[in-house]
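dumping this here before i forget
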Amino acid sequence: MGQKFQYDESGGTFFYFLLSFLALILIPATFYYWPRKKKRDPAEEDKLCKCPGCLAKRELLRNAEPWRGTKNFLIKLVIIAGWVALILLAYKVSQFDYEMSNFDPYEILGIPLGASQAEIKKAYRKLSLILHPDKDTGNEKEFMKLSKAYQALTDEEARRNWEKYGNPDGPGAMSFGIALPSWIVEKENSVWVLGLYALVFMVALPIVVGTWWYRSIKFTGDQVLLETTQLYYYLFHKTPNMALKRVIMILGASLEFDKKHNSEIVERQSDNIEVPQLIKKLPNLNEKNKEFPLCYLYSIKARAIIHAHLNRIPLNPATLEQDRRYIIGKCPFLIHEQVNCVNQIILLAYSRRVPKLPTIETIENCMKLCPMVVQGLWEFKSPLLQLPYINEDNMKHFMSKRRQIKSLQQFAQLKGEERRNLLRNLTDDEYENVMKVLGKMPYVDFQIQVEVMDDDNPTEVTAGAIVTVTVTLTRKDMSTLFGDESVKETTEITVNGVENGEGKEGAGEPEVEAAKRPVWLKQKRGGGKKTKKTTKPVLKPVNATKPKVEESPNPSEKKKEKHQEKAKAKEEGKDEDDTDKSDESDADTNENNDKSSDESVVNKSNNEDDDQEWEKFRKIHEREKSLEGKSKSSHAVHCPLFPYDKQEYWWTYICDRKSRTLLTAPYNITSLVEKETVHLKFTAPNWPGVYTFTVCLRSDSYIGFDQQKDIKLDVKEAPAEITEHPQWEFEDSEEEGPAENNDQESEYTTDEDVPED
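structure:
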């Protein structure tokens, strides 16, 4: 059987190619790009805040893209045109297949199956007079089919070929068709074909790839300019101990706000008049600073707009308000980049690559700035101003002599009548809106557990060991604390400071009175009185201590006692047999009791071993789960002054307040919907002693929701025969001498070295 390669003369295979290619594009494009209108759920609409700020924000977001309707119409038009072309191609291919695969000589001649030779010849003569090419009604293609049909029914060999191969000519050569029309390779069209190839593959494709690459290399993974990141590294390294206002100055100097680096920035002639007028309203702006790039005009303008946002100063809607929306919308991403930069500088300082170590206050000031920008509020202002309709005039009611309401948690704990009395100047609808927003704010139960996970004794911390702090966060709505609800138990909660405010940093910050204990915490023993109490976290051991078991008496002592009882029985005249029987039964009972007690001890130890294994398995599973991709969806934030929708994110980390250093990199929690577990690891100090460290939780969306807890580590001296920690040893490693740490100084401070402030 012969083989031959040929281009598609009739266009059939080319249509197959077009049909497959078009279907591969249209099906996913329709699924992903077809414009869909979000169905508004009335229940969800009722949950949204109805304050003027939120209503104006939602209206601005709806009108932010006026071309969206035109864009959706064009997308629909292109997709519909593609499907119409696909249907037409499918119809043409189906007709082509029908003609090629349905060769029936009886049907072509128009005679019934089993007709005689005379009938076949008669039908052929009749149709040939009509279809012959020399006639006016002739059709060459149809006449060829007619001739093949007549031959298949009259010639014996042709008839056998048709019955066996479906073709009167017999088996044809195997044909490998190229799914391209033949005109592509024709000589007169070669210039146009080569020109098209050159335009697509040598001009268009390199331009598209080069443009994408040029734009992508200018940004980090969080879409922050690399030049901005380099600027942060320089300025934070230059000032290790940075105040909050200087952090704002650096934020305003970000190159995202410079027209030379960002084409989206709009510069107007009116800025020469409006910006100086705005600067006059803002104290402590430090606009006369001569440091580059803090003295550039774009930096001063961005800094003034950030200060105006934090002071809630209204701006011109046509000019500076548009700039405010753009600048404030960029700030959270830039602040997260600042936190990452300071953390990297701290790591470099630990490795002796950077001489100056940034203090813990620097990175915390960066974290403080994020909720300030989101809420449009200075940190020294009352957190109650984050609620709708609450302004400075209402503060005199909250801070009266009879009551000192300083936090949102305290306000939530009040009874309904007291809350309504405090906001008596609001209408019923406004008050209901305030409670709706307050009830959706976060109330986080912050629990910690300390252990050395890979050691035989997880509760004992030795010098140089890897300490794992498991942070468990359970989020509930603030409505859990409402005093007029069913929850009546008390709980202790601290905000913006250490739990025991005496003698520690943050003591001047407001303490929170005993809050209503949520249902997921243990009930408090006693008379149920509401007490103002602070507690320190206890390091809970992973393995429960084994219960003490009374030692069984010695068998020799049992025999002595038995003989003494027999002698005593003889003296009293008792029957010896009865005494022996009773003694034997007592001995058997004692032996059974001993055996059962031993079995119970073994069972308890086995159960404890099983619990330990299960606990290790659970923690390993949690560590593997933490390595998976993080979600960016948690809970919506009430932030009418922030131009876009915002999700709740959190930072958690461990620091040493006395040496003002960071022990672990801040872990960004982006998916705290109900419960989240985070493992923070750091190396224990090299010197034995008692150390106090602080585990912190900070919000990037709300002011007044930060928490921190102290942990005390009693670091023991490492065993002398172990030169390194067990989890760092390998079987094939050579033995090394004992480590000489006598000349090294510990980077931590013990409780005995530095007294409490």
